[in-house]
Specification:
Distance between the termini of chain A: 32 Å
Radius of gyration of chain A: 20 Å
Helix content of chain A: 25-40%
Structural class of chain B: mainly alpha
Strand content of chain A: 15-25%
Strand order of the largest sheet of chain B: 1-2
Largest interface: A-B, 26 and 23 residues
CATH topology of chain B: MetI-like fold
Oligomer: heterodimer
Strand order of the largest sheet of chain A: 7-8-9-4-10-11-13-12
Number of helices of chain B: 12
CATH class of chain B: Mainly Alpha
Largest sheet of chain B: 2 strands, antiparallel
Number of domains of chain B: 1
Number of strands of chain B: 2
Radius of gyration of chain B: 25 Å
Structural class of chain A: alpha/beta
Largest sheet of chain A: 8 strands, mixed
Chain lengths: 323, 333
Amino acid sequence: MNDLLSIRGLETVFDTKRGTVKALRSLDLDIHKGETLALVGESGSGKSTLGLSIMRLIESPGRIAEGSIILHATEDVDVTSLKGGKLRRFRWKKVAMVFQSAMNVLNPVMRIEDQFIDALEAHDIDKSEISGRIDHYLKLAGLGPKVRRLYPHELSGGMRQRVNIALALSCEPDLLIADEPTTALDVVVQKEILKSLNTLKKQLGLTIIFITHDISVAASVADRMAIFYAGRIVEIGPKEEVINRPRHPYSKALLSSIITLNTKRGQDLISLKGNPPDLITPIEGCSFHNRCPSARPECLKYKPVESLVSSDHYVECLYPIGE
Amino acid sequence: MITKRYLITRSIYAIATTFVAIVINFLLPRLTPGNPAVTALATTYHYLPPGKLKLLESQFGLTNAPLYVQFETYFWNLLHGNLGFSFHYYPETVTQVIAQHLPWTLFLLGTATLISSFLGVVIGRITGWMSGTKGETTLSSIFIALTSLPYFWFAIILQLVLAVDLVINGFRFFPINGSYSVFVTPGVNLPFIISALRHSLLPLISIVVTAFPGFALTMRNTMVNLNKEDYITMAKAKGLRESHIVKKYAARNAVLPVSTHIVLAFGYIVAGAFFVEIVFGYQGIGYVLYEAVTSQDFPLTDGIFLVITLTVIIANFAADLLYAYLDPRVQLR
């Protein structure tokens, strides 16, 4: 048993006037203890919805319609069935989150230390321990104890995101969900934050779900990578495998859309035509067939199933690349 | 967080505004045509007795000296609390008249502002949190109706229904007008205090009921918008208790725009209080102003205008301090 979280058949939907949008379509995913799993995909592919679903932060008009999220702690708990005090104690203590909007997630009228204290107190951390913990985790995130007495507006964006990381770690969660934690920051700060996250992960043996739309960021932090498309994982596997030998046409397109130092002159950057499918109407066949460069007539008719292509590398395609 | 620097700059602003208000208050009556001494004499004499005119002019402080000399005298007198004689209440001075009536108004205004701000914030917090429910939409619609009522009209209705008509077994629950019963002696004694409180009830209710729903609506709307803020989501993610999130995250931030609203509304509350005083014959400044205007008592109207201006300036100064205390970001602006 070395999985921390098992997601089975998860369907998170949003009820709109036009109909029910299926943001996650019967999603299965296992998260191994101690790994960093990067969820990569374009906007609207469902990767953030998954993060929020695990935290149970999906609010009306959204809801988790089906499926289970099992957390393997001392005993197995289905997160989707948690309510009231149990849900409250699950959040932050078991799974904590670093949000994308570093600038806006801190309460503007509370000192930094008070935003630690209320979280720690809500999870019944011993009063005598609180102050030491705040200093400890601020230091781990690369901040001095001076920050404690400051207000959020007195910190830069990078410092605020460090505070958020320290805050997320302060209750010593089993799982950390980082939802685009560096997207709102400039490249230099982005690199520093990623470095701290990597170090922290090694030091604390954290399990991290790292949500990003930026493959190069994912490549620098992840152990495994999951490619999201239209509410499903179309490919998942070890980072090197997915990057070097992508088997799904969508992964390949996504990977070749970025320019690296190794990109040769004259080499074509693939740009995908069309849009992801409308998630209100049921999808027939493969969700990617209308944009797929190598689609065949069967792709329109049959739903692809997940198949193992190499060790721990799964792909959901009728005709994976290289076969 | 109130720093010394913030306190000093705000004080300088307040003092400068006060000075400008004093200058305007000095200039305006002097720009109007006519001679108050002549007007006063004309009511008793068919001609102008030169000696009496000179006497009255000197008593009123009317000279043909240059404006800056007049201003110097005016300002010097003002510093000593000397605003001249009231015509209507002669031989009482303006300062005496104001000093007698101001406490009544301050009591009415202060209590009304405090109660309506408190009610607005507390009720708005509740309706904001339960927004979208049937109870909340009904309540908010009632609030919109209440804020649209003019103070004085509502005061008249209250007076008619609760004071004039509501008599059970010969017992009248609310006095119809005045600020205390003629059967008690003013001073620090229980019967007087009870009587004064009883008389102030209806005026207070008329101001509070028409003022607080506006604050409650602002509070509610802000709370609803704040629910979409990332720090509220973050607070939920942190596993905080809902009551803690409402208090320290949602309401605490919603109070900022509401306090601005209350400060802006203060001027209206002052005006409203004056009308209400007139309706109820409540012997505050508003009632005196009404008498001063109808009897063309210029020194008294001038004095009252000055007092009103000062009250609003002081209230704004207090609001600045309160705002800096409530929002740590304020001083950086």
